[in-house]
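note to self — DONT lose this again. spent like an hour looking for the file last time. sequence + predicted structure for the chain T wanted, 58 res
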Amino acid sequence: MENFKAVEFMRKTRKDLDRKYIGLSLEERVKKMQEEVENDPFWKKFLKKHRVTTTARK
């Protein structure tokens, strides 16, 4: 079994997100990510089961 490389994974994820949301302000990024999570079937089920809110902090 191969070891999971968390730091490498997070760096790649951060780069991917930076490319995806290029040109957006922090507030716009948060709103877009929140909408994507709320519309994703996996996250809908997870959030409902665990009663997690997706309201961004202000």
